[in-house]
Amino acid sequence: MCARNSRNGKDVIRLRGLRQNNLRNIDLDIPLGLLTVVTGVSGSGKSSLAFDTLYAEGQRRYVETFSAYTRQFLDRFTRPEADSIEGIPPAVAIDQSGAVKSSRSTVGTMTGINDYLKLLYSRCSTGYCPQCGLEIEPENTTAVLECLDGLRPADWPVLIVAPVPLGGFESVEVISSAFQGQGFMRFLRGQEVVRIPQLRDDDLVTGQVDIVVDRLSKRAATRQRRVDSIEQAFKIAHGKLRLVTARGARDFIRGLRCSACDVALPAPTPGLFSFNTPYGACEECRGFGRIIEIDWRRVVPDRRLSIRSGAIKPWTSKGRRSGRWRTKCRKACEARGIDIDVPWEKLSEDERDFVIDGAGREWPGVSGFFRRLDRKKYRMHIRVLLSRYRGFTECPSCRGGRLRPEAFCFRVGGMTLPEFWKLPVRDGVDILAGLESGGLRRPERLVVEEISSRLGYLKSVGLGYLALDRQSRTLSGGEVERVNLTAALGASLVDTLFVLDEPSIGLHARDNARLLEILRQVRDCGNTVVVVEHDPEIIAAADHVIDMGPGSGSAGGEVVAAGNLAAITASEASLTGAYLRGERQVAGPARERRKTSASRCLRIKGARENNLGGLNVDIPVDVFTAVSGVSGSGKSSLLHQVLWRHWQREQGLAIDGNVLVDSIEGLELVDEIVLVDQSPIGKTPRGNPATYTKVFDRIRKLFAATDEAREAGFDAGCFSFNVEGGRCEECKGAGMIQVEMQFLSDVTLSCESCDGRRFRREVLGIRYRDRNIHEVLRLTIDDAALFFGHEEKLAETLSFLSSLGLGYLRLGQPINTLSGGEAQRLKLAARVLRARRGGRLLFLLDEPTTGLHLEDIRKLLDVLHGLIDRGHGVVMIEHQVDVLAQADHLIDLGPEGGDGGGRLVASGTPEDVAAAGDSITASWIGAALDTARQRTSKPRRRRKTSRRPRRRRNVIRVVGARENNLKNINVEIPRNAFVVVTGLSGSGKSSLLYDIVFSEGQRRYLDCLSPYARQFVEDLHRPDIDHIEGIPPAVAIEQRTTVGGRKSTVGTVTEVYHFLRLLFTRAGEQFCPDCEVEAVPRSFEEILARVRKLAGGGGALLAPVIRGKKGFHHTVLSRARGEGILEARIDEGWVEIPEEELRLDRHKVHDIDLVLRRFSAGGGKKTAAGLSRDLSRALELGGGVVRFVDDGGQETLLSRNRSCPGCGRDFDEPDPRNFSFHSRHGACGECSGYGSFFRLDPLKLIENWDAPLEAKKNGPLAFLDEWPFRRGLRRTLLGELSAIAALPSDGRNLSAWGKRALGILLEGKGRSGFPGLVPMVSELLDSLDEEDRKRYLSLKGSELVCGACEGTRIARRWGAVRFGGRTIGEMTRLSVEELGLALRGLEVTERNRPIVEPILVEIGSRLDFLREVGLDYLALNRSANTLSGGEAQRIRLASALGSNLRGACYILDEPTIGLHSRDNERLLETLRNLRDKGNSVYVIEHDDATIEAADHVIDMGPGPGRHGGEVVAQGTLEEIIGEKESETARYFRERGRRSFELAADPLESSGFLEIRGATLHNLKEVDARIPMGAVTVVTGVSGAGKSTLVRDILEESVRRQFRGLREPVAGVRDVSGVELLDSLREVDQRPIGRTPRSTPATYVGFWSRIRQIFASTPAARTRGWEARRFSFNVSDGRCDACSGQGRKRMEMNFLPDMTIDCEVCLGRRFNPETLEIVYNGRTIADVLEMTVEEGLAFFDSFRDLTRPLRALDSLGLGYLTLGQPSTTLSGGEAQRVKLAVELSKTSRGAGLYLFDEPTTGLHMSDVERLVEVLGELAAAGHAVVVIEHNLEVVAGADWIVDLGPGGGDAGGELLYQGPVAGLVKGAPGSPTAACLEAFTGKARQSCDLAV
User: Fold this and answer.
1) d(C-alpha 14, C-alpha 763), whole Å
2) What residues of the chain score a pLDDT lower than 50?
3) Using CA atoms, how far apart are residues 1572 and 1821, in angstroms rounded to an integer?
4) Rounded Cα gap, residues 868 and 594, in angstroms
5) CA distances from 1367 to 1219, 1362, 1512 (A)
6) Predicted local confidence at residue 1326, as pLDDT
7) What local confidence, expressed as pLDDT, does residue 1884 receive?
8) Is 1329 exposed, middle or buried (CB count within 10 Å of its CB: 0-12, 13-18, 19+)?
9) Are 1613 and 1630 in contact (CB under 8 A)?
10) In this structure, how many other beta carbons lie within 10 angstroms of the beta carbon of residue 486?
């Protein structure tokens, strides 16, 4: 099946009107399935297109399919500014920003390999004794068994003894009876075996008794008996056991213990091997591998200085503290006779130790100085000071291994985990290959495969030299990107958009070929690859190229050229094309290569950092030198770790660790070495080119020197937006306010106070040459150079920036908006400008061409040559071959990376290196030199690297699928098609689509996300398959029986309410709930006067800083302490903030208020002093809100922004939680956010009124004998009531009591003194905890609307907030259609537009899709649990399908469930549209219309359960219809020959159930009749009122009348005819069991009878065993190892848990003794493994068993095993098991059977059988009522009740009731009639519809 194309006929991503950042409203098509390169000069808009548009929108749309909870932990992306984006697949970004800067982040953690290694070592490691080094065998049951097997014949018999601790019991009688009660009869006294009754006091002296569990002889003891005895001994002795033989005894302690050294090891859990958990991390270094302590090399950086001249650096400042310590030191040295004028390096070791360590209290030494500082580190400036003199050293405890010592005792393949971490990746691959060849179980093999694949990918991207413990912050940008690329490769996704940011950065030209091959692999898998790149070789290899430009910044943002390589090369407008044609060259005018001199070189000898192997190399200091070599060859180690750090040390600067180099000669040739590396230049908008280059300092001085500034008293600081004085305090000089948008990306607004100009009006009034400071910041660098042309130094600086190609940048442009290339050049400019103090400089540059176009590289080279011409030197690490060819001197390291590098391969001119035979760089340098010599106008000759992608089959290919009942099947599923998977219930449909396709599709996409994000997404297990390929990211829309509890509403389920909360928070207007007037701001003076008044009576002024947030919050408290705030109110408790760090419970929600000031009553003048300052600070800390708490605890809220002008009430600043009825911050306090509450209802409290009050069983007061009331309460109450004369005493039924008597009984009316039954029970309920009380009231109470919130669920103060004139409660009362109209008609202010519009877009898109699926009538506040099945299904569709993705795989589970046939076509149209957008739509379905509409059908079977699991047929419906084994094909073949005998005559019923005046929910005075002895189908479109009529009215009325309650339920006038019924039986869609303990045998109820049969066998009776012995739910007979489940769950940490057969019982659930009992040759475990068919034959002589078994078999469930866990049943199977329960019950009279869509999950052939069963029930005289849409069931009914015509308010009418045949003519407006006519007409040529 071929993929559908997009609207314009091409397979493209269609972008229209892009305006993101500097993009100029461009229109663009990007081909799908190809490798596209986006290139252009720096700042031209490449990243805006690739990342801010394509990636942001692609991931945003896919992530929207996740739950709201999950999304909050993932990156939040703004909708790009664009008119439309169509055809975009789910996106994955691979850029250079993924490295975590924490020391805990390593290559292993970034790639997720460490997580798998933790599992590997916890599963497969071997323990070794830390003392003797010998292997430790685990002392468990297996070890004891092996010891028994090794005994000699003379050692037998053997006693298994359990040394049981007494646990404090001292009484011999108690202990003896306890042991005997457990079945133990003997114990060991010394060497003598004694009977328990002979236990004496002296036997208890040791605190334990050695119980003899068993006496084993060599022949008689079976292996199972040994196992059971050992397990029992371990169990009762808490893990201890002793074997006593004729030769002696041996003790065992369960676990790992070295018997020789008596050393125990902990269990090897995953946590033990994690340095990020307290359990596994080294205690000394906390898992960092290094410890931080005072680095004495920093304290004494220059050893040539004496103590007097400042050798001790911390004391060289002019502060008083330094002076005091200098004096102390001088006096101590004089007393000791130490000369303080001698250089530090010439002092003796003892003298230096004396100065450092001190000698007692009089002289604590420099160490004492730092100890005292450490006690005051809560102060910020002290912490800063200490940080200057601290350094990292290897942890002495773990030696850098990061783990606790015990973890080093475990090895895999002979290696500890830290040793494995230190290996190069390529060596790890080889080690794991050996492990894989060994015999591993599937869980362990799975882990090893994951590690191997990830290591293999790292190796394939050229990172085989990296070690897993390499810190991620030490990686280059290119290395980071390639590390991230491994996750994408490992995912093996298809139909995904991969966006890469210059992946060639850091790559040698040799490795470019490897990179290209990887990119092609990703592309050829069916993905779209978009690469931002400048490398000509990558561009030449692309299938499609987009050249952005023509300039940078505001001069860019356009598509200059787009197409294949030839199109770009031919474009005259393309700068990239000019370079590719050879018209332009990176090399400037011919420049003679500079000569190098040996006397002008730095001579490095014996460099040994990292992989440098004693390297000797000369580096010229006055020429252009380039250092080349493959990745990992040692370039950065040479320049950064050796040269730069050695230079710092020589300058007396502190560095971490030693520099591993013998010597560096020639440093006197340079005055300064300047390093320009790849570290980021800033992430905040406060930084800009003017501040970063210090240009702004000079500009501020010019403004401060003006006459106006001097007159106003403004200094240079007033013209800074970073300090107080001149900046706008409203926005703190940022010019903008950031509005947090919770689950949307944050919005920035222009500051209203300064209008975005950052400064106060007074400052903006100062002008320099007719421009104010804001206008100067708006100048471009080129314009500023002209404006300040008269300022020589300033103009020179600005001109230098222009020479680097940055002239288009504005002086005030935020640094975080710069592109990578712009930031790199700005950093270079800043370093050069700071170094222009004169002298000879040597610049060390680390790949300065990163992010630069060839044109930008040319400009950069001109600048660098200019520096060299002025006498400076440049040393550059570089891979760009054109740059290398321009160098004067080239140093080539290698030849490979890692251990294969670190050597000098070649050195000299580029020509010399090109001639070197063993240099990998040589061939590329030679080619570049040849090109430079030719200087032709033809394009440069390159290897042709571009090739078209390989055409792969557009299918998902599954090989060897064995999941659940799948029988090792191979199947190909077409992609980008509408595929239906059908088959009998239990045939394997869900196993194929959900457990394999969906699980793998979503898991592989999530593997591309960070481990942090993955932990919040449900773990998806790896299916049991051999291979799967071609799988796209998947989205599942599953069946669910409910969409939430009482608190869930249509608004919350669809997420519309979440966005409404955000809307009201950010743009709502606060109104007073009492005065109904809008709140207004309050002046500072008003608040101050109010506080003064309150303070007169005493109290405290509080600033709320934390509200309802989890976390330690130590930073907030430490900062407050540093400001002098010493007290806080934390969670309603008053706490003094200590000097040491205070950490709160991170998992608890906290409220923190800082106490700014306390007042005493009658403080007078003391109160007024400083109050204004304290209040101002409190308002600042509290965000405009303060609280005052008086001495009596009364709290007053004071707000600067929200105060009622009528009553003076103030309001908090709103938060989204304040509008959430799920949160304590917003929920109504009266109803807890439910909008209603339950009040005790006497009609529900008393269930049976037709019985006397004294009746015990099923009497009116029987509820008092049940939970939650105490025993005897009923008897006590009856005693009280018997003394009341006004109550009847003749034993009459309660229903016959008079009103007066009932009033006394129920309400306590009259003067009897009795409080009344209802008040008494209410008082008793008040003593329960809140949850139990609510649960009881929900059962025995009636629901009433909450009067406090009037059903809105929100607290009154927040329910009064309005937006657009409506409160949030009023908005949620609107229907979907009405809310859409209301929001479209809103008028939004320009100020609020940036906030409101993104929210309205999100709400609008969700409302639109709800309208599309026909749910426009639903109100948002409607409770989710009142929705019909069809409505709930369509809401889920609306939520999941609204993402508008392309290339995703949507998997739906029977989406037609709950849908009327009329609505099916609307659903099918939705699915077809989804397919036509380029998605794969896979549907599990039995509906014939859906199967007919499919492009491809896969029929599973041939039977259900173990008889299924195969692909019976696949293809189009026409292709499979002839398949003989296919039940689906048989149905369609025979459909045309079928005839329907539609019931036409009036029923000869034995009576009717009659419903009169039904008005509940949307029902409109419905009068319905239900005939006895007939099948009645209640039908109608979704939301028509079917469930309301049947479940809420009919079922509830029958239940009430069965209980003797005469009052009808709410919403109906009367229900009659119930006297015709003897029973009520319901078959609904609720699950039949949630744990594996529930099975068909236990659920249907015949398991107890089977256990009785086994208990009645002679062998069981002899042992005295009862039926409970044969239960796997009690401890008597079950296997203790697995608690009777037969399987054990293996925790896999961050992977989904796995279950394996119990190794003790081998999955049979019972212990060996129980399995010795046999009935007819079968054990109880054998019976559980029988199928229903086999059980029916086995128990054919037991009528009470054959009835339920025959019911299961008759419903097509004969293949189920009796012990199959209910959790593994399909939906259709579970539904039929329920039906079997009802069919197996015996009934003496007529019953009412209620079925809620029983065809759910049923195949057509199963439906035929169901219709027969329903008919049999009706023939037996029962009333059978079925809510159903399936036309097969409708056509087979006797009676129809048709509701409609629409859903919601448009429904609720009775359209027709009567025989089926009359429906068509009797209800012309009925959708059901039209569909039934079409169905029966399609099934047969003619159909008599006459009544």
Assistant:
1) 48
2) 1-9, 99, 935-946, 1041-1042, 1692-1696, 1883-1891
3) 6
4) 10
5) 11, 4, 58
6) 82
7) 35
8) exposed
9) no
10) 27
Q: Where are the beta strands (DSSP E) in 1274-1372?
A: 1341-1345, 1362-1363, 1366-1367
The bridge status of strand 873-877 relative to strand 841-846 is parallel
CA distance 1564 to 251: 80
Burial 327-357 (b: 16+ CB within 10 A, else e): ebbeebbeeeebebeeebeebeeebbebbbe
Closest CA to 848 of 833, 831, 870: 831
Classify residue 1633 by its DSSP letter.
-
Burial of 748 (0-12, 13-18, 19+ CB in 10 A): middle
Q: Give the tokens for residue 1424.
A: 């989710």
Tokens encoding 1453: 């589970």
A 10 A CB-CB count for 632 gives: 28
Side chain identity at residue 344, one-letter code? W
DSSP-assigned letters across all residues of 813-875 = --GGGS-HHHHHHHHHHHHHHHT-SSS-EEEEEE-TTTT--HHHHHHHHHHHHHHHHTT-EEE
The residue type at 128: Y
* N-term to C-term CA, the chain: 47
SS3 per residue for 921-960: CHHHHHHHHHHHHHCCCCCCCCCCCCCCCCCCCCEEEEEE
Q: Say if strands 1480-1484 and 1449-1453 run parallel, antiparallel, or are unpaired.
A: parallel
Q: What is the pLDDT of residue 1291?
A: 84
Predicted local distance difference test score (pLDDT) of residue 103: 72
Question: What are residue 1844's DSSP bridge partners?
Answer: 1853
At how many degrees (to 10) do helices 1743-1754 and 1647-1655 cross?
A: 140
Q: What is the 3-state composition of the chain as percent helix, strand, coil, each rounded to the nearest 5?
A: 40, 20, 40
> In terms of residues, how long is the chain?
1891
d(CA 987, CA 1501): 5
DSSP label of 609? S
Instruction: Report the pLDDT value the prediction gives residue 1390, as an integer from 0 to 100.
Output: 82
What pLDDT does residue 1011 have? Answer: 55
Burial string for 1479-1493 (b: 16+ CB within 10 Å, else e) reads: bbbbbbbbbbbbbeb
Tokens found for residue 145: 């068994």
Instruction: Please name the residue ranges forming H helices in 1134-1293.
Output: 1165-1168, 1171-1181, 1242-1245, 1273-1282
568 in helix, strand or coil? helix
**Tokens at 461, concatenated:** 């991207």
1240 contacts 1229 by C-beta, under 8 angstroms: no
For the beta sheet containing 255-258, the strands, ordered from the edge strand earlier in sequence to the opposite edge, are: 138-139, 255-258, 263-265
Question: What does the buried/exposed string (b/e) look like for 1097-1136 if buried means 16 or more CB atoms within 10 Å of the residue's CB?
Answer: ebbbbbbbbbbeeebebeebbbebbeeebebbbbeeeeee
Q: What angle do CA 896, 899, 905 make, to 5 degrees?
A: 40
| Pairing verdict, β 390-394 and 290-294 | antiparallel
Respond yes or no on whether the N-terminal peptide bond of residue 1658 is cis (omega within 30° of 0). Answer: no
Q: Within the chain, what is the greatest distance between any pair of CA atoms?
A: 127
Q: Cβ(623)–Cβ(868) under 8 Å?
A: yes
For the stretch 1613-1672, pLDDT in tens is 999 998 899 888 888 766 676 677 888 998 888 999 999 999 999 888 888 899 989 999
Q: In a 3-state reduction of DSSP, which class is residue 969? A: strand
Q: Which of helix, strand or coil describes residue 1424?
A: helix
pLDDT tens per residue across span 528-560: 999 999 989 899 999 999 999 898 888 899 999
* Cβ pair 1066, 1388 in contact under 8 A: no
